[in-house]
Design brief:
Elements lengths: L1 H9 L1 H4 L13 E2 H8 L3 H13 L3 E6 L2 E6 L1
Antiparallel strand pairs: 1-3, 2-3
Helix pairs in contact: 3-4
């Protein structure tokens, strides 16, 4: 799952629908879209993304109640 997310985040416009509340280049991809694409529970997505962030592979940005992720 984490490898798939890293591939998707490399070209977010190709793999995710347009976001009405955040730019892919500025903020990254909303965690909600990642969860939907993976088809797993939000808590599991959060765990996967935290592992990737701790490894220095993605950057997490909090905006309101949403967290966005983009590759570093």
């Amino acid at each position: 799952s984490r490898l798939a997310v890293l591939r998707w985040l490399k070209q977010p416009r190709k793999h995710f629908p347009p976001q009405p509340h955040g730019d892919f280049d500025e903020l990254g991809v909303c965690c909600t879209y990642i969860t939907e694409k993976l088809g797993i529970a939000p808590a599991t997505t959060t765990r996967h993304m935290r592992i990737l962030a701790d490894a220095g592979l993605v950057q997490a940005t909090r905006a309101g109640k949403f967290t966005y992720y983009k590759r570093i």
